[in-house]
Automatic annotation (TrEMBL):
Its main location: membrane. It is found in: Cell membrane; Membrane. GO terms for biological process: intracellular protein transmembrane transport; protein targeting; protein transport by the Sec complex. The gene is secY. Belongs to the SecY/SEC61-alpha family. Keywords: Cell membrane, Membrane, Protein transport, Translocation, Transmembrane, Transmembrane helix, Transport. It comes from Hymenobacter perfusus. GO terms for cellular component: plasma membrane. It is a multi-pass membrane protein. The chain crosses the membrane at residues 21-39, 72-97, 117-136, 142-164, 176-194, 206-229, 257-281, 301-319, 359-380, 386-406. Pfam families: SecY (PF00344). HAMAP family: SecY (MF_01465). This is Protein translocase subunit SecY. The central subunit of the protein translocation channel SecYEG. Consists of two halves formed by TMs 1-5 and 6-10. These two domains form a lateral gate at the front which open onto the bilayer between TMs 2 and 7, and are clamped together by SecE at the back. The channel is closed by both a pore ring composed of hydrophobic SecY resides and a short helix (helix 2A) on the extracellular side of the membrane which forms a plug. The plug probably moves laterally to allow the channel to open. The ring and the pore may move independently.
Length: 438
């Protein structure tokens, strides 16, 4: 406890870090306040009770309830995320964007600018779809004017959220876009926790305590999955310059077990709602449509099996496009490094690809298990709002953002010669010598 208090004192003793923390809290407060500002022309008392369900329910969870509240931040930062995914795919398929990605900082700035521009048409289209989800009884004066004005307000709200995220990145602490998503998720935790405690009152507190222990273990498992790396040793040849001689150095290439992050879950989740939507649009009296609609409900075993398989497939796909063994091998060869026992060039590329393939399998399976845990928790009797925190996109995003923020705070502490945030040990995969930066 004394170590924790000392760390807090050290954090606030650094003026720059202190101001960044206050700036972050200020921007987050603005975002949360805007999440409760209802759109003009909408009666909040007539909105659907209980919030959104299905894919809209997941979206509402990521937005901290802004979607179901029909607020000016109803779509939040999600259209920007969609634009970012599109640009990521373009950097793989389009040579022009591939060239921009290799140009370093200037290329990244251009890609970010394209992402901002692409966000505008995406949010404009999504805002029209959002208006269709609002309860018709809650709209005071429906019509063309309401649709156009609401679409403009929602678009402006998303652009403002995007600006807030960039301000948090520049003036605050952590990645602003990820921070906004995390805050939206965390804002639902107190209500979900209280609701689960009240639901367990009739059956005693023991079940609730067991649920908290299981949740703690799941969080620890997600942290391990997020931090786990396979270190490939790299040896640099001895260099001689003039009278000085530099001895050989051994460093490591950290290959993450879960290099794809949360993206496989997002892609798989998007596809899993297609059968249900198609079944609802099909002939409702059809027996086949009824079976499909039943099978692809989140709590059905067919849904979870297909969902898990899609996550494993997308994990391999996204890892393959985000980690390039050929480029790593070429960078090693140019810098005079080599993997002990492996020839430079093609053999090194094949070795790295083999290691990556092996470690991706357990990472993909673990990611699939974590993704279906909320459904398993619901089947076990956990209330749906609280079950969302037992895994899936929400938990992985929260863990990733917290770890990233902790490492940024730690870097400030170490620059001022303070101890890190941990009493002993290091965050694995982040504090070791790295042979290559990506």
């Amino acid at each position: 406890m004394n170590k924790f208090i000392t760390t807090i004192k050290n954090i606030f003793a650094i003026e720059d870090l202190r101001m960044r923390i206050f700036n972050t809290l200020f921007f987050i407060a603005i975002y949360r306040l805007g999440s409760y500002v209802v759109l003009p022309g909408v009666d909040p008392t007539r909105l659907k009770q209980g919030g959104a369900t299905g894919v809209l329910g997941i979206l509402d969870t990521l937005l901290g309830g802004a979607f179901s509240h029909a607020s000016i931040f109803a779509l939040g930062i999600m259209p920007y995320i969609s634009a970012s995914i599109v640009l990521q795919l373009l950097t793989i398929a389009v040579p022009y964007f591939q060239k921009l990605q290799k140009e370093g900082e200037s290329g990244r700035k251009k890609i970010n600018q394209y992402t901002r521009v692409l966000t505008i048409p995406i949010v404009a289209l999504q805002s029209v779809g959002f208006i269709a989800t609002i309860n018709a009884d809650a709209i005071l004066n429906p019509g063309v004017f309401f649709t156009i004005s609401t679409a403009m307000i929602v678009t402006a709200g998303t652009l403002f959220c995007m600006w807030l995220g960039e301000k948090i990145t520049d003036k605050g602490i952590g990645n602003g876009i990820s921070m906004i998503i995390m805050i939206g998720i965390v804002s639902r935790l107190p209500g979900a926790l209280i609701g689960e405690a009240q639901a367990r009152t009739m059956r005693g507190s023991l079940v609730f305590l067991i649920e908290l222990v299981v949740l703690f273990l799941v969080v620890m498992a997600v942290i391990i999955l997020t931090q786990a790396v396979r270190q490939i040793p790299v040896q640099y040849a001895k260099q001689i310059g003039g009278a000085a001689s530099l001895s050989s150095q051994r460093q490591y290439i950290p290959m993450k077990v879960n290099a794809a992050g949360v993206m496989p879950i997002i892609f798989a989740q998007s596809l899993m709602f297609v059968p249900a939507i198609a079944a609802s649009a099909w002939n409702k009296d059809s027996e086949t449509a009824g079976l499909i609609g039943t099978w692809f409900q989140p709590n059905h075993w067919v849904y979870n099996v297909v969902f898990g398989l899609l996550i494993i497939i997308f994990t391999y796909f996204y890892t393959a496009i985000s980690v390039n063994p050929n480029q790593i091998a070429d960078d090693l060869k140019r810098s005079g490094g080599f993997i002990p026992g492996v020839k430079p060039g093609r053999d090194t590329s094949e070795y790295i690809d083999e290691v990556l393939t092996r470690i991706t399998l357990p990472g993909a399976v673990a990611l699939a298990v974590i993704a279906i845990l909320p459904s398993l928790a619901t089947v076990a009797g956990v209330t749906r709002p609280f079950a969302q925190f037992f895994g899936g996109t929400s938990l992985i995003i929260m863990v990733g953002v917290v770890l990233d923020t902790m490492n940024q705070v730690k870097s400030y502490l170490l620059m001022r010669h303070y101890d890190g945030m941990m009493k002993t040990g290091k965050e694995r995969g982040r504090s070791r010598n790295i042979a290559l930066a990506s």
